[in-house]
């Protein structure tokens, strides 16, 4: 009579790995037929001797395909030693004949040439041999220190830039397009205004983008000239673009250039420095207003845009006379060479905070702690309510240094005492070094804004005097 198939004594289902109970014929989780599971051998595995594993008694193991008929697999062959067939079972065409010995063989860069004893050439490797050195994205700078005599392709297939073209600062191989991006690696190049330094005679200025802004919207202009009597005169103009306006970087650049040119042109003609400063601010205003003269189509395409705008602060140093002028919240500080004497701030901000303090509604600490503190009430631009240039003249009775800066610096050295403490003692004889130190002070403090500062040493006057 028929007998029921006996289930295998296995602890888990071979299909779903779920636990089984004694006497189960089917898996309770997946329904797998446990009767097809072969019984587990009772003896222990026999260790292999010379690579052969004898089959246990009573088990009919299937014979390995292409074996020798005794359960031992056939010898292992390399892929190149077996005849290949296509999808229809037909033999593959024979490989192309090898190149003549006289013909040079150029190895493919992606796959290294086969070494002696390796499979025949022409075999495709899923994982090519690892090169000893991986190709770099950029050439070794030690190799590119000397100018190349021939133009070779850059990594990635991009043509190498010519000697006169600008080279990418990231990969040092790609050509920089007109938009300021590398044609090889796509890296955006530093803008020319991201960091600027200039020395002109005894004065110097430094401007930096800072650590948070994507561009530098500050600009400066420094220069030296002579008065009609031959006495030297130094000029510094610093402008800060209004970020909420359109094209603030263009506004600051146009204003600084116009004001600087106006001063350097008026002082040699004998114009009083204070009048020359007033006229320079008006010239800067006209230059910024001109940026707003756009075609009607441009206004229609961007009706939400406002006019370009910036602030301005400047100083003129002549023999015994210091003149300052400003519109906005950039500042001028006076730091005497004798640090035992008190420093001073020479400008008043056109800002909400300054108005609150002047009206007696808030203390200076309370006003500048308010989130509206830096809202400016005066600026250069076509949409300014009313242009009110501020000018003042002083006759310091001792030598010192005049600091002309944007709020990107004085936010980290607001009081005159803090500014004097941040400035190195030798700033009068090393103005460029002093300007770099002050910019570094702002960057170390956080660099939340663009930072620009100009230093003008004030020589010892022939005689002491007070404010003019």
Brief summary of the model shown:
The protein is 18% helix and 16% strand. With 468 residues, it is an alpha+beta fold.
How does the SSE layout of this entry go?
Blueprint: E1 195-200, E2 203-208, E3 218-226, E4 232-241, H1 248-266, H2 273-290, H3 296-301, E5 309-318, E6 321-327, E7 331-336, E8 344-345, H4 352-358, H5 364-369, E9 380-381, E10 390-394, E11 400-405, H6 407-410, H7 416-422, H8 431-445, E12 451-458
Antiparallel strand pairs: 1-2, 2-12, 3-4, 4-5, 5-6, 5-9, 6-10, 7-8, 7-11, 11-12
Helix pairs in contact: 1-2
pLDDT under 50 segments (min length 5)?
Answer: 1-8, 43-53, 58-67, 76-82, 105-151, 464-468
Cα end-to-end separation: 130 Å
Return the average pLDDT rounded to an integer.
Answer: 77
| Fraction of residues in β-strands | 15-25%
Percent of residues in helices comes to: 10-25%
Give the H and E element order. Answer: EEEEHHHEEEEHHEEEHHHE
Derived structural class: alpha+beta
The value of Rg in angstroms is 41 Å
């Amino acid at each position: 009579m028929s007998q029921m198939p006996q289930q295998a004594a296995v602890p888990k289902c071979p299909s779903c790995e779920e636990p089984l109970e004694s006497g189960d014929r089917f898996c309770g989780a997946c329904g797998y037929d446990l009767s097809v599971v072969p019984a587990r051998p009772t003896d222990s595995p026999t260790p292999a001797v010379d690579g052969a594993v004898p089959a246990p008694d009573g088990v009919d193991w299937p014979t390995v395909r292409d074996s020798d008929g005794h359960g031992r697999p056939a010898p292992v062959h390399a892929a190149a030693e077996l005849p290949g067939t296509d999808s229809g079972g037909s033999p593959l065409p024979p490989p192309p004949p090898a190149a003549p010995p006289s013909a040079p063989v150029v190895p493919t860069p992606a796959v290294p040439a086969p070494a002696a004893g390796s499979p025949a050439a022409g075999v495709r490797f899923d994982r090519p041999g690892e090169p000893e050195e991986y190709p770099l994205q950029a050439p070794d700078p030690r190799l590119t220190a000397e100018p190349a005599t021939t133009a070779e392709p850059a990594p990635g297939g991009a043509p190498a830039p010519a000697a006169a073209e600008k080279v990418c600062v990231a990969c040092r191989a790609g050509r920089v397009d007109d938009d300021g991006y590398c044609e090889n690696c796509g890296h955006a190049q530093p803008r020319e205004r991201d960091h600027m330094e200039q020395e002109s005679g005894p004065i110097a200025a430094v401007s930096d983008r800072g650590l948070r802004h994507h561009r530098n919207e500050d600009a400066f202009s420094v220069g030296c000239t002579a008065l009609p009597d031959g006495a030297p005169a130094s000029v510094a103009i610093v402008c800060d673009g209004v970020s909420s306006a359109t094209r603030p970087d263009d506004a600051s650049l146009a204003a600084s250039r116009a004001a600087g040119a106006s001063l350097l042109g008026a002082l040699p003609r004998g114009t009083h420095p204070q009048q020359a400063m007033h006229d320079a601010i008006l010239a800067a205003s006209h230059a910024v207003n001109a940026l707003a003269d756009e075609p009607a189509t441009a206004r229609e395409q961007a009706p939400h845009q406002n006019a370009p705008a910036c602030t301005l602060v400047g100083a003129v140093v002549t023999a015994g006379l210091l003149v300052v002028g400003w519109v906005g919240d950039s500042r001028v500080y006076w730091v005497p060479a004798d640090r035992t004497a008190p420093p001073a701030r020479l400008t008043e901000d056109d800002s909400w905070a300054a108005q609150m303090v002047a009206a007696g509604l808030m203390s200076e600490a309370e006003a500048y702690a308010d989130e509206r503190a830096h809202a400016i009430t005066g600026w250069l631009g076509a949409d300014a309510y009313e242009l009110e240039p501020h000018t003042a003249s002083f006759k310091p009775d001792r030598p010192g240094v005049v600091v002309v800066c944007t709020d990107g610096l004085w936010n980290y050295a607001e009081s005159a005492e803090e500014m004097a403490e941040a400035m190195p003692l030798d700033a009068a004889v090393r103005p460029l070094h002093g300007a770099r130190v002050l910019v570094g002070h702002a960057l170390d403090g956080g660099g939340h804004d663009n930072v620009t500062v100009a230093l003008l040493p004030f020589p010892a006057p022939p005689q002491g005097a007070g404010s003019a």
